[in-house]
Amino acid sequence: MAEAKTLQTLQTGHVGLNVTDLERSLAFYQAVFGFDVMAEGKEAGRRWAFLGREGRLLVTLWQQSTGSFATGRPGLHHLSFQVGTVDEVRAAEAVLRGLGAEFTYDGIVPHGEDGTSGGIFFTDPDGIRLEIYTPTGADPADAPTPAAPTCGFF
Prior knowledge:
Layout (H helix, E strand, L loop, with lengths): L14 E5 L2 H12 L2 E8 L2 E8 L2 E8 L15 E4 L3 H14 L2 E2 L5 E2 L7 E6 L5 E6 L20
Parallel strand pairs: 1-4, 5-9
Antiparallel strand pairs: 2-3, 3-4, 6-8, 7-8, 8-9
């Protein structure tokens, strides 16, 4: 297999998510992540929103699905957001609890046994699995899945 030597500045761009109710999802993502609406389509049957921070596009929402996120099918496993401190994770957790979000684990959990990176694992209004974590500052503790990364099994 040939290596892609021409992709020397490669990085992840935005993530596009299908949602069932744009207004509900837009309110959720703005409340939790503080996203700005960079652009929005309001035409019947073609509703969408581009969300970002500081001029950088991060997430796009597309109202073009029904049902809920299917964890048992190939595709997105979860979407993770990194923050700088455990206090930021706790602040996001408080916002999510106020919104009535569904959590997979109780509180901040380490990514692995005795790890210092950790976060919170929850779902958006359509059941899409999300994570907010910090690379350091989570107290070493027993992980929910000791033999594997916590984020892989929610």
